[in-house]
């Protein structure tokens, strides 16, 4: 088995006041292995994006530990440690319209990381690096001199991907990178991410709510609901043999490009079921984990 590159243990991220906290993430634990893609899915507001932002240290976490390549990054305080961490882990943001500075050219957007980290001070070397990055994401070197408003949505997201690759990271958090794009462009961007992963030996945490796309790109899938990971396992296993009622409900809502199937498709409504204090993560099948009590998981498995 591949080495663990990321370990998340008991991660909590609360907002608001101590008396009435909003539990965006409520004690989740999972691992990501080198070279794989872990898909993180769930409805809007379940805590997916907050998980990604907490892992990359955009938020100071409330509780828990995050180990990256064996080091506890939650203990990093110095600028030097954080800069080194950010060279290894980068993020692709959801909205390509909002995540690019409209006053900067594409080349300046990518080069900003070099200014922060003191890299490629030679002008020609820097231009060559920016040009090769743009070409690697399907754009031209000439695009370096254009501003964000001169690009389409898909092209802007490609610039966002190039920016994420600028420091040669080993781990990328893709926070719903295709949700703001047209369907035809979504497939192109996902295929690009798969190619880049193979070429650069990247590991992804792929956050999305489009279950069909997540299955296509992910090796394993974690299903999130109300700040908890309620089910985790191999992608095919989660799709073919879901156990948690919430996962079954999500999968029943996925449309299929088959009119005969669509006419007969029955959606499964989800009725929220509280998990008591003795709730825990249970390995229902080898490599297939479900959150609940022993009684609940036993009932869900047999249903």
TrEMBL record:
Family, similarity comment: Belongs to the ABC transporter superfamily.
UniProt record, GO biological process: peptide transport; transmembrane transport
Cited PROSITE patterns: ABC_TRANSPORTER_1, ABC_TRANSPORTER_2
Ranges for domain ABC transporter: 6-251
Cited InterPro entries: AAA+_ATPase, ABC_transp_ATP-bind, ABC_transporter-like_ATP-bd, ABC_transporter-like_CS, Oligopep_ABC_C, P-loop_NTPase
Protein name: Peptide ABC transporter ATP-binding protein
Source taxon at top rank: Bacteria
Record-linked Gene3D superfamilies: P-loop containing nucleotide triphosphate hydrolases (3.40.50.300)
Record's keyword terms, sorted: ATP-binding, Nucleotide-binding, Transport
SUPFAM superfamilies for this protein: P-loop containing nucleoside triphosphate hydrolases
Any Pfam family hit: oligo_HPY
GO MF annotation, one: ATP binding
């Amino acid at each position: 088995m591949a080495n663990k590159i990321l370990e998340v243990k008991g991660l909590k991220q609360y907002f608001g006041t101590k008396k009435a906290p909003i539990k965006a993430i409520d004690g989740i634990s999972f691992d990501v292995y080198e070279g794989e893609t872990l898909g993180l899915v769930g409805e809007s507001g379940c805590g997916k994006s907050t998980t990604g932002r907490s892992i990359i240290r955009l938020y100071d976490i409330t509780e828990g530990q995050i180990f990256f390549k064996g080091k506890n990054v939650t203990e990093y305080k110095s600028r030097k440690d954080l800069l080194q961490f950010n060279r290894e882990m980068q993020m692709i943001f959801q909205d390509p319209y909002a995540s690019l500075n409209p006053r900067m050219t594409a080349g300046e957007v990518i080069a900003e990381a070099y200014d922060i980290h003191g890299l490629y001070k030679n002008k020609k070397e820097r231009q060559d690096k920016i040009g090769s990055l743009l070409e690697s994401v399907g754009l031209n070197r000439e695009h370096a001199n254009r501003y964000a408003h001169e690009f389409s949505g898909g092209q802007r997201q490609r610039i966002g991907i190039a920016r994420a690759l600028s420091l040669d990271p080993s781990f990328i958090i893709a926070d719903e990178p295709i949700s703001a794009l047209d369907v035809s462009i979504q497939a192109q961007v996902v295929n690009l991410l798969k190619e880049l992963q193979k070429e650069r030996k990247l590991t992804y945490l792929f956050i999305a709510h489009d279950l069909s796309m997540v299955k296509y790109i992910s090796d394993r899938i974690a299903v999130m609901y109300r700040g908890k990971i309620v089910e985790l396992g191999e992608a095919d296993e989660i799709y073919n043999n879901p156990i948690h009622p919430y996962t079954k409900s999500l999968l029943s809502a996925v449309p299929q490009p088959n009119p005969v199937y669509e006419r007969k498709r029955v959606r499964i409504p989800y009725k929220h079921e509280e998990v008591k204090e003795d709730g825990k993560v249970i390995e229902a099948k080898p490599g297939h984990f479900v959150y609940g009590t022993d009684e609940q998981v036993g009932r869900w498995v047999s249903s």
